[in-house]
Write a structure and sequence with these properties.
The chain is of the alpha/beta class and 276 residues long. The strands form 2 sheets. Strands 1-2-4-3-5-8 form a 6-stranded mixed beta sheet. It has a two-stranded parallel ribbon with strand order 6-7. The chain is globular, with a radius of gyration of 18 Å.
Length: 276
């Protein structure tokens, strides 16, 4: 059976774009589509999490346009990112999924990043390290400082996760280039502008079960914003992991994988993708 370290990269061309993806695990199950963090590619998932998920799930990793191994440009809106995912899945005749994604919502102006109208101020220094990293070494430090606690235990968790992620030696994509990074930042900024069509203002429209998870002190996106999501989504559940930040899913890979399995096994509703 394939693993995060060995899964074959596949390609499909649609609408003039060549998408890269990896689909492995229990193929008869509903695909668990996984969307990566800022500047990340499907190479950046931690095997400690992915390999536990694929024991019971059909894992579907992808690179959105302009990132990783996929062609094209990074879309300038989050809606554009979503459209690409829908296009890829429709091309592969996948009409029903479970979805796991990492939040990228930040504001890079004023007092700092924020998710909700509460305007929780956050130090943007860790995020700017992610923006400005130009090589593997700088990116490792940026991930360490933005995803994990600045403690001995946090540093150890960061190092262990980084080493696991890089167990895959071949068929890896490089770090997202400066142009793609700036386009991701711009899409982030556009999303942050008050607008009734933006996702935060439409959270009440979500009716499917949603599991929200975070560490208890996220240096990138205030953990308080997870509570805001929980309060604004009617069918949500909330899990907070102690002594962890944005990288909780790697630090608590076994526990989080078990929580995902429990959540998905207990729910019968899934996201249906309408294809026009």
């Amino acid at each position: 059976m394939s693993t995060q370290q060995t899964a074959k990269t596949q390609y499909v061309k649609t609408n003039g774009i060549r998408f890269a993806y990896r689909h492995f695990g229990q193929q008869a199950a509903t695909p668990l589509v996984m969307l990566q963090h800022f500047r990340g590619s499907m190479d950046d998932w931690d095997p400690a999490l992915i390999n536990r998920l694929e024991e019971k799930r059909s894992v579907f990793l992808l690179d959105n346009t302009g990132a990783g191994k996929s062609d094209g440009q990074v879309p300038l809106t989050y809606a554009g990112w979503a459209d690409n995912v829908i296009l890829l899945l429709a091309t592969l005749d996948i009409s029903k999924i479970s979805l796991l994604g990492l939040v990228q919502k930040l504001i890079l102006a004023g007092t700092g990043p924020s998710w909700s109208p509460n305007k929780v101020a956050v130090d943007i220094g860790p995020f700017m390290k992610l923006v400005n990293a130009t090589n593997k070494e700088e990116n490792e430090l940026a991930i360490r400082d933005s995803f994990y606690y600045p403690t001995a235990a946090g540093r150890a968790a960061a190092k262990a996760s980084w080493e696991r992620i890089h167990e895959r030696k071949k068929d890896r994509a490089g770090l997202l280039d400066e142009e793609g990074t700036q386009r991701q930042v711009e899409s982030n900024q556009r999303f942050s502008e008050p607008n009734p069509t933006n996702s935060f203002e439409r959270l009440h429209e979500l009716k499917m079960p949603v599991l929200i998870a975070n560490g208890d002190k996220d240096a990138l996106i205030s953990t308080a914003n997870s509570w805001d999501l929980y309060q604004n989504i009617s069918n949500a559940r909330l899990a907070i992991y102690p002594d962890a930040g944005h990288g909780f899913l790697n630090q608590y890979a076994a526990e989080f994988a078990a929580r995902i399995h429990e959540f998905l096994d207990s729910e019968t509703e899934r996201i249906d993708i309408a294809v026009a």
